[in-house]
Amino acid sequence: MTVAIEIGTRIETGALASNIEPAMLDLEELLSTRLLVQGNSGSGKSHLLRRLLEQSAPWVQQAVIDPEGDFVSLAERFGHLVIDAAEHDEAALAAAGERMRAHRVSVVLNLEGIDAELQMRRAAAFLGGMFEAPRDSWYPVLVVVDEAQLFAPASAGEVSDEARRASLGAMTNLMCRGRKRGLAGVIATQRLAKLAKNVAAEATNFLMGRTFLDIDMARAADLLGMERRQAESFRDLGRGRFLALGPALSRRPITVGIGAVETESRSAGPSLLPLAPAASEQDMRELILTPLPNAAATRARRMPAAPPPDILAQLSLHGVARGARREAELEVLLPVQQTLEDAANDRRRMQSILRAMLADAESGYRPVHVLYQDFLVRCRIDGMGRDVLDIGRFRKALGTARAGIDEADADAPDWQAAERIASALPEDVQGVFLLVARAARDRLPCPSDADIARAYGTHSPSRARRQLLYLEEQDVLVLREDGAGRRILTIVGSGWETLPGDPAAVPA
């Protein structure tokens, strides 16, 4: 079935108003070819995305990655489920991404109010859950990512390498491999130059709005097949007007004026508002400079905060009108009370699964969220369900397994002390600490840069050395060299010390 939605009107130079034709978008073709939207702030990108979402809502399931909370208003009019990412961890969001596909619920992932790194981690977890959904859930989904340069940056920024790798990997999967899984990516960005090229290059439909920087105009002209001298035309586009090209839009570049929308954004543009009549200086001083109330008293008066909503309960309750069958399916997913013997058996099975995963030489260089999804799939295949470990406990178990600690040693008091030290460190370096702690405890040669890099999830020896220096700065270990330039490492407080090891040794 071919479904064409109207996104606005075609604007031809010199054409009479009576000759203006509607600009149509072939929704079925879009699901196969993906869309890139570009335009500076104020060019009308969010309005365009809202028009696209509203017009296509009756025809296709939708998932919106919303960094500013602009699209939560879709819920009241079109029934989208709004998930507040600040209230849920990565494991819950990964499960939600998988389950929203199984139950065909349109979702807005609201990332408003959390910092850039958390936005990247939680968007990556949600997209990863959608991508890893079972084959029988591969229904078509329109995945709209606003401000895509935040999640697929062209260069490293202030966030950690792990968060950037996870987010960029999820966006690459969406745009490069998502089509066969029914995922149709629609990405919008203010700056093409800030968007990773391998993500932008997968789109074959384009809506290019107003832009002023030469580098962005040149890239937009290249994508549309225009000559460089024509690139300056992007400066002349008005708000809400875009140059359109692609198999779902037009075989040649046309100018499109985006139509009206039914819902409103919570973050409307600024408007002028007259100032209130001037108050006296004393009144203004009291309003602006009155001391803050005592913090302790404020906390005492504050009502206890309600517990955060359960994201899985939201999914189970959403769309009750669709029938009791869905509720019964979700109830099957609730964990079952296990005996202590069953828990011990499950632990042995999980450790066996971890060892099998780590037998793959490339596992050390995969992002943790990818390994976590692989682990959950293997656990489900083994009959242990899908909620055996949250991602925090998985990181700890993964670090212990990479360190070569077996089940008996894992419960030893001295190793429990090492794990307590690791738990106080940032998550991305816990595995490195456990690796070197195990070598020191067992009087093994100090791990090489290559071994430490693999535990950190990188191929870079220099980055591995930086992690050791960081751990020394945290006063958890001491580094020194012997006369032959070999590295010796001592764990602070325990007295554990490695044998001398060659930092440049090649792993076996």
TrEMBL record:
Keywords: ATP-binding, Nucleotide-binding. GO terms for molecular function: ATP binding. SUPFAM superfamilies: P-loop containing nucleoside triphosphate hydrolases. Residues 31-309 form the AAA+ ATPase domain. This is ATP-binding protein. Gene3D superfamilies: P-loop containing nucleotide triphosphate hydrolases. Signal peptide: none annotated. The keyword Nucleotidyltransferase does not apply. The keyword Protease does not apply. CDD domains: TrwB_TraG_TraD_VirD4.
